[in-house]
Structures are given as C-alpha cells and as structure tokens.
Amino acid sequence: MVESPFDAHLHLRQPGQLLELVINHAKIGGVETAYVMPNTVPPIRTVEDAVKYRALLEKLEPNVNFLVSIYLSRSLTTDEIRKAKSFGITGIKSYPRGVTTNSKEGIESYEIYYDLFKVMEEEDLILNLHGELPCSDFNSNISVLNAEEKFLPQLIKIHKNFPKLRVILEHATTRAAVETVKSCGDTVGCTITAHHLTLTVDDWAGDGLNFCKPVAKLPEDREALREIIRQGHPRFFLGSDSAPHPIDKKLPNSPNTKCAAGIYTSINLIPLLATIFESALPPPMATSNLTKYFQDRRKLSPIPLSRFNDFVSKFGRRFYKIKHENLKMIKLIRRRETSEENLEDYNSSFKIRESFDYSFDVSKSSSAHFLYETEQEEGVKNYQKTKLIPFWGGKVLNWRVEES
C-alpha cells in the first residue's frame, strides 16, 4: 500500500497539444496530487492564467489534486506574487533561457529577480529551479553534460541570500547536485525522476525516445541518485518530469530538426518506479514466458521498497506543506512467477502500452492563448493524427496499480 502518491513535477501541456490525452494518465499511473509546470504555449505568466489553468485541469480530471505554478519572467511583479499566495498558487518556476522545452522566454540572470524572491520568502511560495546553464556561449565551455553542475553555484547563492525561501532543484541528474543540496539548509529540496534512476548517457545517445533535459549522465551519477533515496534523505522526493511529445517531435524525419527533450512516464509512474527501485536494469519486452528472465535477472543497485512511500509521498508532501487529511491509499500488485497457460494474458496487465494514438486540432493548438480563446465555428477545425510513446513502451513491469 502506498499513501497518496505526490508527483512534484508534471507537464500536462494545453488543449490541442496532448492535454486531452494525458490529463487522466496521472490518476491511472497512481498519482493523487500533482504539481503542474507552467511552460505551456503561451506560458502561465499571471495569477489569472494559473487559476484558469487549474480550473481547466480540475474540470478534465476531478480525481487528482492539481497544484499550479507561474512562469518566472520580467513581467512578474511583487504585487502579483502576493496575489498568487492568496489564490493558492504553489510556486514560481524558473527556466534558464533556451535550455529545455518552451523556455525561450526564460531568464538570463537571477539578481534582477531578488525583489521577487524576497516577497516569495515572506509569502512562503516555492521557487522551482530548472538547474542548468544555457549552452549557447561558445566561450563558456558549457554543454548538456556539465550544464547542471555549472548551475549549482547559482543555487548556493540564492539560498545564501534568501535562507528562508523554499527552493527546489528540479530533476537532479548528478552526484554534484546531490551533494550540493545535501550541503544546504532545510529549505532546499530536490526532485528526482523515475527515468534518471535507470538511464545513463549511453541510453539517450542515438535514441531520441530517451532524450530529456537535463540529460542522463554517468553510471556513478545514477548511483548517487539511487543512494540518496536508499539513505532516506527527507529533502529528496519524486518529481517525474513526465513530459509528453508527439512521435514526430521525438523522432523527427527532417535532418535539420532537433529531437524534443522530454520523456513520458505518467501513465505507469508508480508501478514503473517500484520496478526501477528493484533494479536499475530495464525489464524485457513482453514475451510468452518471463519467468526465467526474472529469475536470472541481475539485481543492479536495488533500493529497498521500505523507502518507497517516503520518496513518492511523505517527503514531498512535507516539503510542500500539503495537508495530510483524508489521504487515499493505492495498492500495488506484484507480478507473480507462474506457469499458468494464460501467462501471456496475465503478463499483459503489467505491460506498458507501446503507444497512444492522438488526434489534435491544428487550428486550436496555434491559438493566441488557450485559456482565453472563444469557441471556434463549425467547419474550421483541422485535425491531424499523431502518436505518443511512453517510456519503456512494450516492456513488462514487476508491479501494477490495483484497479478501483
């Protein structure tokens, strides 16, 4: 049994950009509360935007508690920060300019936001940091492999200047990030994704489906992430960074088109994570008999399942100060070793779906702002079809969520 899983970093996009497909997947994947990122197109820039976005999400999926955030930009004011607190906005998300999906309006310097950080500290709003420096400066010697480590002095500086401001280093990927967060005070937390607990640089080099920002690093970095969870450190908790992209964005046909950064895990998040806890090695694709494989499977860097509830629920909820009232329990079912004749059918209930078909309205996805658009006239809709491929699509997990 797992106590009300909390995903502290989720991307849901907007209407016409996969929202209609993925909005219900968080619940299916076992999540009860989710903190949703603001890098939609256009971004969630104001309190009004955030309130409208939350209402839209709650209308589409009333069974998940959605927390929302605002995109840090020059248009944000101290008055808007105070207003955000009164309207139940959880935090402000910072994206360095150009480092990840929909971050072209991101920031270039933190000092210019110190007046906002001061008010955030007073109002007890969270600052969520995408912890990478841009790689665009040729003379900076920064690449995707060291962009996170180069960012860490910024985290230390912000924490030093605003020691009571709750700050989260999002989706850490390096030993250096783990050690830096550990060295900070109790107001600095860190999210870790499911996929960074299994991937390394060799998994995404040449495979767009495993490419995300920040990229997975070296095996020793992966081990540092697993070890800090193994230790039960209370300031490290789940943030999936589940980021859906259509297949043509992940595996583009044009040689001049870059692969979109993002891995989609939401649909199977909690059982996926339980499987990854047991081994950093991925399971096989679905076959008629997996018994021998799982019997022979080498356990690589297991994390005790006794740490599972703390990581996926307790620690994140505590840091975010989410009230522990009427917490719902979800039950995970372990895949058993069996020689049943219907073994293939049995295993299929633990199999991650290979892909999801999605039809979207092109005219709707290119609207000026999805939160303020008016109803389109009949006959002007332009539908196109695409696919969404989840992480480990087609593979068989050790666990599944019990259907309610």
UniProtKB/TrEMBL annotation:
GO molecular function, one term: metal ion binding
Gene3D superfamilies reported in the protein's UniProt record: Metal-dependent hydrolases
Single GO biological process annotation from the record: pyrimidine nucleotide biosynthetic process
Domain of life, source organism: Eukaryota
Keywords: Hydrolase, Metal-binding, Pyrimidine biosynthesis, Zinc
Gene Ontology CC, one term: cytoplasm
Record NCBIfam families: pyrC_dimer
Protein name: Dihydroorotase
Originating organism: Phakopsora pachyrhizi (Asian soybean rust disease fungus)
